Each structure stands twice: as C-alpha cells, then as structure tokens.
Q: What sequence folds into this?
C-alpha cells in the first residue's frame, strides 16, 4: 500500500553532506512571522504562554507551518528555503529549509495580513486530544486514519489558529481514508503494541521483529508503519521512566503529547547493530552522519532520518579502535573481549530494539525553564553535556532498573564484569533510561560528537554503580 503522496515526497532533495549550518537568517524570518501571528491572535498568544509556563516548551517548536503571500518568496529564497514537491492544492506552494530544522511555509494568495501569516498550524501528537483541550466541539476535518487531519482552533481578527495531525504524510491535502486503510492502521498499531520483546536468545527476538514488520507492511505502507512504530516505542519507554511520565502528564494537560520529539536513541549490541539499521531502512529511514568516536571513547553511532515522518534515530554501539575504518552500520561486528558503556547497558538490560526499549527520548524545550520546572516536580537534571548558543543538552537523572539475575550471571561468567560489579548490580540494579532536555537554535540539525562522548562516559553502568555504593 503506497501513501497518497509518496512520489511527490521523494522528489524533495536531501542534502549531500551532513555538515549542518546555522540558519539564523531563516530562523529569524520564521520567528518574525510567528511573533506577528501571536500579536494578532489572542488564543494563540495565551497558548504560547501556557506552553512556556506549564510545559517548559517554546511555541516555535510546535509549529507545523505558517502561511504567507507570494510577495514573500524572495525573502524565503534569500534565507535558504526551497520549494518542496509535496502534495498540495494547485494554488499552494510549500517551502522548506533542506539544511535546517524549522517549520515549513505555505505560500498562497492571501496568505499574509499586515506582514504576518493569516494562518498558523501547530502539530500535537494526537489532534483529538488537542481539540478536546482547546476547542471542544470544533469539527475535525478528516476521519481517524486520514493521512492529514486538521481543525480550526481559533478564528480571530482575520487570523486562524489551526492544528494538524499527520500519519506518515508531508502533504497538505485532507483525504478521507478508506475503510480498508483504517482497519489496516488499527491492526498495525496493535501489532506494534503487542510485539514480543524479551527472548532467551536475542537472535530469536530480531527474527520475530522482522516477521512482525512484514506483517505490518501487509496492512499499511512504510511511512504509516514508521509513525505507528515510534508512537509505541515512546509509550514503552515512557512506562519505564518517571521523568518521562511527569513531563508527558504536563504536556498532555495541554493536549500536546510528544509532538516535540527531537530524536529517539537506541543502544544496540554489536551482534545486532546491523539488524537494527536494516530494520530502520525498511521503515524508510536514510542514513545521515556516522560517528567514529575513537579509541578513547569506544563507541560509534549512526544517525538516521525518516524524512516523511520527520523522525530521527540516534543508534549507538560499542566500537573498537580498529573498526573506525569500516561502515559498522552494515558490517556485522564480531564479539568483543570487553564491553564499553553501550555494550554493558545492553548486556544488563537488553537491546533498545528488544527488551530494554529506548535509552532516552530527546525532546525540544526551553532548556533552562524545563530544568527549573522539573525540579519542582522532584525530577533532577544532570550537568549539561552540551552548552552552546545553538545546542543545549542535559539528561534527567537516570531511572534505575532492576537487572535480571540471569543477565548478570551471564556477564560475570563470560568475564565481562567482576564478581564485585555483579554483586552491586544484583543489589542496586543499574541506570536504565533518561529523558533528555534539548534546545536548538539557528535551525541546527546536528549533534556534537565530543559532547556525546562525555555523556556516554557519564552514564556507564560501572560508573553509576560505583557512585551508588
């Protein structure tokens, strides 16, 4: 089954390199339009204040798109935007920034008023939750299962605040779903939610995951399958992390859900890293940066992006110094005589792909404000590991998980942990997951390798176990 705009979406050109720029001019242009809209729409202005005060998030990060008139095309082009070939009404052009992370701009006749957008659309995780909180009774255009659903939240003084929900779709046409697709999407969601994850042998779990993917793809296309898969991965992670539950409750109070997700981090064993990448590629991901952190760090990572859904994965793995010359995303890594931070985490808890779930979800926030707000909820935050004008990152304090005795004994028997470490893990468990607080500026899409090395070292289970004694 193919999405309604698959061919058009593929027409958008991807950047050839991953040396991501700072697009301050583009960000300033979009920010100017958003601020103009907020001045003219009191409902949106109040929503922005509540987002800031009640969730520690910035209104900008929830914006799906704004509209402007054709007279602004020259400004868009000068700021680095380009026209994107996605499904849209005949009188509409969609502009995006191919090298930066920011809202898109819909150009149409009458799209501006007094220099600001006539319409601005936010994108919560689930439209029905948002409508229930802010515009109960408002009509939702597009039944459940439509690839694009939208609702008008506030029509005020010539401006319109809307909200949209997307299901593996970047276009701008609401099309009612067929009964077959609705049934298929419901079945796909159930298949992902009920996916077995804990196996005596990880190879069996990997085989089962691919079989489940085959079954899902008989019901929906890969873009919808991807959207539904990661909704369930977030749910599984959230159930195992108190900081996530606290923040999700705060965001759900405004009907937002995890619509501000930035990337999903999967830790993987050397044995199955290539399997994880192959699985993600089947869901429509494309490879972006690949990090070789070097001998002193002992890890590598492959960044992947699914451009239709906008989902990004940071997948990391133990890496030996001599392996920095190979493409470890496709080359199956042999067993190692020692475990680094990532390998030990997987040994204790399982691969993120399987039993453990994600190591963390990183979402976009007002960095300082979120730290302060979570502290009042009893959620502590670790020292920032990135502290730049364009990128700020910090983990919440880790959620400590009980470790299955058989996993500890296997690691001890294989000489990968000491008897003393085994005893500590039996008694105290080991840090399992975090929520990550991130703030980006200038549309920066990338990551700082040196900073990531710092936090990987800081979350080594042996290090945190030593600190707990």
A:
């Amino acid at each position: 089954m193919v999405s309604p705009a698959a061919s058009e979406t593929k027409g958008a050109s991807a950047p050839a390199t991953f040396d991501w720029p700072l697009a301050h001019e583009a960000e300033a242009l979009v920010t100017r339009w958003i601020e103009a809209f907020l001045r003219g729409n009191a409902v949106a202005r109040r929503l922005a204040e509540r987002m800031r005060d009640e969730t520690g998030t910035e209104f900008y990060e929830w914006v799906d798109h704004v509209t402007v008139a054709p007279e602004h095309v020259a400004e868009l082009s000068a700021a680095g935007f380009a026209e994107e070939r996605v499904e849209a009404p005949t009188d509409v052009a969609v502009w995006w920034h191919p090298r930066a992370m920011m809202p898109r701009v819909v150009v149409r006749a009458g799209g501006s008023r007094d220099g600001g957008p006539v319409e601005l659309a936010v994108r919560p995780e689930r439209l029905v939750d948002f409508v229930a909180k802010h515009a109960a009774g408002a009509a939702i255009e597009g039944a459940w299962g439509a690839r694009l659903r939208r609702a008008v939240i506030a029509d005020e003084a010539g401006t319109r605040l809307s909200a949209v929900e997307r299901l593996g779709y970047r276009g701008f046409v609401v099309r009612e779903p067929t009964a077959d697709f609705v049934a298929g999407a419901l079945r796909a969601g159930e298949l992902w939610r009920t996916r077995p994850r804990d196996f005596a042998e990880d190879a069996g779990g990997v085989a089962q995951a691919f079989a489940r993917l085959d079954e899902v793809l008989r019901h929906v296309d890969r873009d919808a399958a991807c959207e539904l898969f990661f909704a369930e991965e977030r749910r599984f992670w959230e159930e195992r992390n108190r900081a996530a539950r606290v923040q999700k409750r705060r965001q759900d109070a405004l009907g937002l859900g995890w619509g501000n997700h930035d990337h999903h981090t999967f830790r993987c064993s050397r044995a199955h890293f290539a399997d994880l990448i192959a699985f993600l590629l089947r869901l429509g991901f494309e490879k972006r940066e690949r990090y070789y952190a070097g001998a002193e760090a002992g890890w590598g990572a492959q960044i992947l992006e699914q451009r239709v859904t906008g989902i990004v994965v940071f997948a990391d793995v133990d890496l030996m110094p001599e392996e920095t010359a190979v493409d470890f995303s496709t080359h199956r890594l042999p067993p190692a005589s020692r475990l680094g931070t990532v390998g030990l985490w997987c040994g204790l808890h399982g691969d993120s792909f399987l039993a453990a779930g994600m190591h963390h979800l990183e979402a976009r926030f007002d960095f300082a404000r979120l730290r302060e707000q979570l502290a009042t909820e009893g959620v502590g935050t670790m020292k920032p590991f990135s502290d730049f004008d364009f990128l700020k990152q910090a983990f919440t304090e880790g959620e400590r998980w009980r470790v299955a005795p058989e996993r500890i004994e296997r690691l001890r028997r294989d000489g990968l942990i000491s008897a003393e470490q085994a005893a500590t893990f039996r008694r105290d468990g080991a840090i399992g997951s975090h929520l990550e607080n991130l703030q980006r500026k200038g549309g920066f899409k990338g990551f700082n390798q040196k900073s990531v090395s710092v936090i990987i070292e800081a979350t080594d289970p042996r290090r945190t176990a030593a600190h707990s004694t």
